[in-house]
Structure formats: structure tokens, C-alpha cells
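Side project, low priority. Logging it here so it doesn't get lost.
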Amino acid sequence: MIQLIERFYDPNEGIIYFDGVKIKDIQLNSLRQEISYVSQEPILFATTIRENLRYSKPDATEQEMIDALLKANVWSFIQNQEMGLDTFVGQNGTQLSGGQKYRICIARAILKKPKILLLDEDTCALDTKNGFNTKNIG
């Protein structure tokens, strides 16, 4: 389904619409700019949380980052870190738990303010107590 929405493939039957427009009639670059995707294996770069977030929106304000982190339910963890948003995550996020990595990737996707947010196995790394509620991303 994700590959159909991102137009890696076109459907053999039926039509996919995006905002009432046939997805085939939308330029591929324009379509993909409206999509944020978080894969089952979240990818973080060997830099800070702040810089990882800015990959999706380079001009993001600190408040925008905090709002996205709140929606992804990871802000309280970051607040408790000595360096806060400037906490180094390690190579591919090795300094974080799987759930923390995934939530930061979700926050990065939310920060872009996409019209479509695709989450591949969005609860795979999250515990049942602190799961992710997609109603909060609005």
C-alpha cells in the first residue's frame, strides 16, 4: 500500500485519489513532497536530536520541534537529557532505545507537516504503556 501511495507502482485496477485528484495526474516530485514516511527500521543520523529533526524542515523553530516531539510522545525524555535537543544520538541512534529512536523519527516526519503521514509498523518499537496515538498528530 505504501509503495502505491508513493507511486513506486501504479495499481493494476482502480484509481487512487489524493485530495480529489487522480494520483497519476500529480507530478511525482509534488506528490512526494506532501508525504512523510517512517519505516519499520527508523533511521537517525550520527548527530544531535535537533539536527535529526531539521533534516525534514531545515528552518524549524525550537517551538515547532518541541511541538512535534510532544505529538510523538518523546519530549519528556528529551527534557530529562542534560543536553536536551542537543543530545547526540550516536551512529544510527545507538544511544537511544528502539522506541525513543522511532518516536524521534515520527517527530521528524510530523515536523514536515505532510498531508500524508505513512507509518510502517508504527508501534513496532513502542511499548504498550506508551504507545503512539495517531489522533495527536493533527
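Brief comment: Residues 98-111 form the longest helix (14 residues).
Revisit when time allows.
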